[in-house]
Amino acid sequence: MSQNNAMLRALSILTLAAVVAAGCKSIQHVKLTRPTFIKSVVSLSPSTTEIVATDAAQTLLRGRTAADDYPMSVPKSPAEIVASVKPDYQKITEIHPELIVYDSALYGPSDAEKIKALGFETVVIDADTVDGFETELWKMGDLLGYGTQFADYIDRIRDEANKALAEKITPVPKVAMILAGNGGSPMIAGTKSFEADVIRIAGGDPVGPPVNNFVPASPETLATLDPDIIVLPTSEAHKNTDAASLLNSPTLQGLKAIKKKSIAPIDEEVAERRGARVDLFIKSLHNVLGAMGGK
Among residues 214, 181, 215, 195, which one has the least CA distance to residue 281? Predict the structure, then answer.
């Protein structure tokens, strides 16, 4: 279970416990020296806002995105919005944060270069595996001086992963994570994506193209993959209509998942954000795969 870090803010040494090895934890000491901890943060993605506001302190946030909606306590002042479709580079410069954090899934190489060119310390969440995500959390916890809180979150992630791995689903279902497309072409998560790694941990065999993001899913591709279960990131308000759009799609009628109506809705914010609810993502996905795996 948890190995909490000894951390004294008055000192410049922060000791963190790293999670290693499948199914167990051992302690690896990382010694960092910094005169002070980060006191001001600009977050350019909802997922990183979740992490800072949940596992550190939302008082550190000096700038955020227009789409931030979790946790509910995140300040709602429009004056703090520094990113909508694109970052407001001038406003970020005026804030002069000690740290910028963002998820790479939201920005292309051009924006990444512009963010880097601002000259502020930056942490980018871009891991394609849960283990890699944990490493990025350690780094953020180091900088913010909230090592104990971040260690607790990583413990929750590992606990849910270990529970899922211990409760194997037999036979292992082929699982595709698909975005409904809102009338357009559906999108499918690639097998090298963070979402695919969570599917593996949760007990499924992810199917899709060998990429690390969501890409258009042609009927021919889906017919070849023929998943047993389709995981559908959606909102509570739209889960019925999104599921119906897949179930009634004339191009998908030959799929096993469609014939068996094995559509598993899951909270889109939990499923699509590498944020403060990855433990819930693993737990929720394991539960729905377990419930549908034997159908």
Answer: 195
